[in-house]
Amino acid sequence: MLEHVRQFDPELADLLNLELGRQQDGLVMIPSENFASPAVLEAAGTVLTNKYAEGYPAKRYYTGNEFIDQVETLAIQRAKQLFSAEHANVQPHSGSGANMACYEALMQPGDKILGLNLAHGGHLTHGSPVNFSGKKYNFIAYGVEKETEALDMDVVRKLAIAEKPKVVLSGHTAYPRKMNFSEFADIANEIDAYAMADISHIVGLCLAGEHENPVPSHDVVMTTTTKTLRGPRSAIILSKIIDRLQEKYWPGEKKNLAQRIDFSVFPTFQGGPLEHIIASKAVAFKEAMLPEFKGYQQQIVKNAKALAQSLMDNGLRLVSGGTDNHLMIIDCSKLPVQNGKVGAQVLEKAGIYTNMNMIPFDTGTPFKPSGIRLGTPALTTRGMKEKEMKQIGEWIAQLLQNPTNDALIAKTKQNVKDLTTHFPLYSELK
Ligand SMILES: Cc1ncc(COP(=O)(O)O)c(C=O)c1O
Fold this sequence. Notes:
By secondary structure, this protein is of the alpha/beta class. It has two domains: 9-31 and 292-429, Aspartate Aminotransferase, domain 1, CATH 3.90.1150; 43-288, Aspartate Aminotransferase, domain 2 (3-Layer(aba) Sandwich). The chain has 17 helices and 15 strands. The strands form four sheets. It has a seven-stranded mixed sheet with strand order 4-10-9-8-7-5-6, sandwiched between helices. A four-stranded antiparallel sheet has the order 11-12-15-14. A two-stranded parallel ribbon has the order 1-13. Helix 5 (95-106) crosses helix 11, helix 7 (153-163) packs parallel to helix 8 and helix 13 (291-313) runs parallel beside helix 16 (386-401). It is globular, with a radius of gyration of 22 Å. The structure holds pyridoxal-5'-phosphate. Pyridoxal-5'-phosphate binds at residues 32, 94-96, 99, 123, 125, 171, 173, 198, 200-201, 224, 235.
């Protein structure tokens, strides 16, 4: 596959091969990572990268879009069908940019929006003070309860009624429990706010019926196309066409909600769309329509439960005591590693890839948080099941409890490599 790169740029080809080897020989457990299929990868590397196509199908600024329009229309149709959405914009380059476009379509600068506390699982774009979201909008955070480390929807409702935000945002990047999307939508309805969900992490689970699909009950839903959806690094926005609150919040505005979303993506924040990535998204949507996609998502959850159980059986504390989805968070504060940064580094030495993460009510900082976030989407793509999760949970617990034992790290690294040989990945790419 790298034939031409290898010929022209051996230095780069070597690096690409080393990265392929790292993915093959290690355990990728970062819950936002996955292995896209060869078809998804191939579509992303096509001649569509050559085309400038500012605008939307049949409304382009340049000529030569006969086939590009068909590609983008196919991606739109598939996204709408897959998610039961009235409207789909498939042009956002990334999740952060897509969230920016959603906020722009729903709010004016300074408007109030309710989002999940970052230390409790919210994403950077859900109101971090260092991010555009926290700088441009007035984010009010809801959070988990201290006892359960889970959301109490009565508390969220009371906060929403007291604060009266213009948008109620649900979704997360590090919350191990189910989110009750219809209750979020009810709360938004109750206070005349827009209901928006960012399902970037759990998108596959929503599609497979493991979690509720918020698209029917929400005004706007954003998702990245990586992670549990297994597509390319990108995002899409799904929305209603009609704005049920147009009179109240946008009097005199001619554009409906779908048109405002489209206008926010282009020309407000983006120029030409990445049509090769849109083609790749179309492939991922087709894959997600296959019956086996559902089985894959079910196995992700079964694997996460087995991994969580193994970690807890081996003495680790998990935030909220387990998981309902694809991810979990280990509390490292009482372990010899003391924090998630050191913990993730120790695991990395053994070829186990996770990421440091804040935990609810963390006494650490974002650069030295108490937690490690890990999950099962990528390992499940490789075909691993509960038996492997139990074993991996034991290895992780041993390493976090003995972080300076170099012999253990070396032995585990070898065990990891041996395990991965039974679950081949991208053998056709070598
Ligand atoms: C919930 C959520 N929203 C948005 C994003 C941002 O996506 P991107 O990294 O593509 O900008 C992420 C990425 O991890 C995410 O988890």
